Amino acid sequence: MKYYIIAGEASGDLHGANLMRGLLAHDPSCDIRFWGGGKMAAVGGTIVRDYRDNAVMGIIEVIGRLGSILSNLRFCKKDILEWKPDAVILIDYPGFNLKIARFAHEHGFKVFYYIPPKVWARGEGRIRLLKKYVDRTFIIFPFEVQWFKSRGLDVIYNGNPLVDNIASTPSVHLTREEFLRSHSLTDDGREIIAMLAGSRKMEVGYLLPRLVKTAAILKAKTGGRFRCLLAAAPSIDRSYYEKYLDGNSDIEIIYGDTYGVLSHSAAAAISSGTASLEAAIIGTPQVVCYGMNPITYAIARAVVRLDTISLANMILGRHIFRELLQGDCTPEHIADELLHMTGDSGYRSRMLSDYKDMMALLGEKDPAMRTAADIERIIQEK
């Protein structure tokens, strides 16, 4: 089998790597060509484009990169035609991937969508495109099953791959001392606060300056009780972070070990996205902090129909933790919430109990392996 996989973001790279392992386990001789990142490249196959060169989010930001996006679309279509895969597998990244779905379908290729667009938040019209151009859609959130079914789309839910990915990460099983030593840090006894500023430069540029001020507030209020560790995104160079830290911050940068940082932290301040769900699975109390270009935010508020932006809150159907959005996303509010989570044992316990309820809904182990088996079976059936 020949598989052409397209993932356009850090979370897609993670899920793509898990799926590739499943495909290779079922068919060790399969050939994989992909758009992705380091996690997918570590599994094998041939990388066509690195998502870090193309990651962009927001209407205003997309307009600024339109020429590059159109060039990539043309190249991708040409590459698929020349390589002739048995299936094209699309992972999230809807603005790009839905266009490829139509192209691939119209040229006779089988199309699978693994983690479809979040049409339950906005863009419900995209369901028509999924029905028309995708052979089968695989979802990773349990609440999506009934939502898609009620709209006439037959989807497959095999569980959420993050659970297995986290459990198989060595650093989450280390002691605190072992974790710190693995990053050449001495254990000074301070409680650790995890800071995750996002996987795109736009997100980091918005949130990191606020987190720098948050760290200063925490230090002033507690006399240095906390140690702030920034879990850096692999898609962003250290120099980009350091220009915001400016050499004077109390925040230390950790690369390549987001799960380790979360596992050994008393609480976390997190940009919304996959990282927030990862923190919930790990069991780290958190506050979600998010904001963007004011014009983009105003448009998003007009089209998004949800009362929460965090996946863990959506899965459980209630607010497990606070979300500080746009005007509420201030250093003072972030610091207050971190102090609340680390100082109020009842508040903290309720959050951890809700995490357990959420975990019970996520389903069985090895979802990527079962998804890979389904893809192979469907191709052979057709």
Can you give a write-up of this model?
This protein is of the alpha/beta class. Helix content is 51%, strand content 17%. The chain has 18 helices and 13 strands. The strands form two sheets. Strands 3-2-1-4-5-6-7 form a seven-stranded parallel sheet, with helices on both faces. Helix 5 packs parallel to helix 6 (126-133). It is globular. Residues 56-62 have low confidence and may be disordered.
Shape: globular
Distance between the termini: 14 Å
Structural class: alpha/beta
User: Helix share of residues?
Assistant: 40-55%
Biggest sheet: strand arrangement: 3-2-1-4-5-6-7
The count of β-strands is 13
Mean pLDDT: 92
Q: What does the secondary structure layout of this molecule look like, with pairings?
A:
Layout: E1 2-7, H1 10-26, E2 31-36, H2 38-43, E3 46-50, H3 59-64, H4 66-83, E4 87-91, H5 94-106, E5 110-114, H6 126-133, E6 136-139, H7 144-149, E7 155-157, H8 161-167, H9 176-182, E8 191-196, H10 201-222, E9 226-232, H11 238-245, E10 251-255, H12 258-263, E11 267-270, H13 274-282, E12 286-290, H14 294-303, H15 311-316, E13 323-325, H16 331-343, H17 345-362, H18 367-381
Parallel strand pairs: 1-2, 1-4, 2-3, 4-5, 5-6, 6-7, 8-9, 8-11, 9-10, 11-12, 12-13
Helix pairs in contact: 1-18, 4-5, 5-6, 10-11, 10-16
